[in-house]
Write a structure and sequence with these properties.
With 206 residues, the protein is an all-alpha fold. It contains 13 helices and no strands. The N terminus is likely disordered.
Length: 206
């Protein structure tokens, strides 16, 4: 069996909330999404150099195993999934289950992942709600404009390739940010200056 992954000393001592500390399974498994997360990390270059010196596996410093191999630093061993399995009852554990377990996440990991998602949503809502008028994420802004142009949930879902339930969730978040119900959503968005280009982009569907 391959040796377990080790981490550089500077990662163990840092107080920064690095992406790899929050979602380790993405980095151990060379998940391509991890490369994008690395780009905003202040330790990116240090991690990349460490991984090249130690012939590490996974994403380190926005560099995948294949990219390090191409740079002349191939890994010494390729760890098996069980060598890098996170503890159950964590969000990282749920990600491991989804990748390697045909039965999906165990109840403890599933609950941990849901709790982590709810916490992130609350933190995001709090940050956005502290500013008035609110600043909507790009996807929510597009859905708001489509809704204001008279498109129903099914039409919005088709346009943005989303499930109707997902569209409904986005609309719910937008209503919360604007502190209104669905009947008053368009008026509240117009009052907040969030709909200057809605009809020009989506047409006079209303």
């Amino acid at each position: 069996m391959a040796a377990p992954i080790t981490h550089p000393d500077f990662l163990a001592g840092t107080t920064a909330r690095t992406p790899c500390a929050l979602q380790p399974i993405r980095f151990h498994a060379s998940d391509e999404d991890a490369v994008d997360l690395c780009l905003d990390c202040p330790l990116m270059l240090a991690c990349r150099q460490w991984a090249r010196q130690h012939r590490a596996v996974g994403v380190w410093g926005a560099e995948t195993t294949a990219e390090r191999t191409a740079a002349g630093c191939p890994p010494e061993t390729e760890p098996e999934p069980e060598d890098i399995r996170p503890v159950c009852g964590t969000e990282a554990g749920a990600q491991w289950h989804r990748r390697y377990d045909p039965d999906g996440p165990c109840p403890a990991c599933r609950n941990a992942a849901r709790s982590a998602m709810r916490l992130r949503n609350r933190e995001r809502d709090a940050a956005l709600g502290a500013v008035w008028p609110p600043r909507l994420p790009e996807q929510e802004q597009k859905i708001l404009e489509a809704f204001a142009a008279g498109m129903d949930r099914a039409a919005i879902g088709r346009r943005f390739r989303l499930k109707r339930k997902t569209v409904a969730t986005y609309l719910y978040r937008i209503r919360r940010r604007l502190r209104t119900d669905e009947a008053g959503l368009v008026a509240a968005a117009q009052a907040a200056g969030l709909l200057p280009a809605a009809r020009r982009e989506f047409g006079e569907a209303a």
